[in-house]
Design goal:
The protein is 19% helix and 37% strand. By secondary structure, it is α+β, with helices and mostly antiparallel strands.
């Protein structure tokens, strides 16, 4: 098996976080996939979420943000409803995890190697263990921003 270096530009983030560059496979139909450079990002300023940047022939990535718990659950069993769902591969796809993204223009099924995703989630756990996310949120600052009419972003 040949491992190629993902065609994803490096991501630098201020503060604590981690990034996983990977080549996702868009499942066009059974037996036909297309490579899409992507990255998973996690930052302690938004401890409940992971971001998935998809680079589809664009200088600007398409970003989906969803629960870290959803991604972790999807490595074991079908997880999520609505815009994002994740499930493990079975049979010949047992080493993969599948992510379905649904938007206004339709759905896309992405296939990722499960082990790098699992390692990425382990790194996020070392930064902020599951169940300790609330200790990383500055709820007073978030509330002030909401009351002042600012964005509801939990980050700095």
């Amino acid at each position: 098996m040949v491992h190629e270096t993902p065609r994803v530009p490096p991501q630098r983030a201020a503060g604590e976080g981690c990034v996983l560059a990977l080549d996702l496979r868009v499942v066009v139909r059974p037996g036909l996939t297309v490579s899409v450079p992507a990255r998973l990002r996690y930052h302690t300023a938004d401890p409940y979420a992971v971001a998935l940047d998809n680079h589809v022939d664009s200088a600007t990535p398409i970003t989906w943000v969803f629960a870290r718990e959803l991604l972790a659950g999807g490595l074991r069993a079908r997880s999520g409803i609505g815009s994002v769902s994740v499930h493990p591969g079975v049979g010949s796809c047992a080493g993969s995890v599948f992510i379905t993204l649904t938007g206004e223009e339709g759905s896309v099924l992405l296939r990722a190697p499960a082990e790098p995703v699992r390692a990425f989630l382990a790194r996020t756990e070392r930064l902020v263990p599951t169940g300790r996310e609330r200790t990383r949120l500055d709820l007073d600052r978030l509330l002030r921003r909401l009351c002042d009419g600012g964005a509801a972003s939990p980050g700095p």
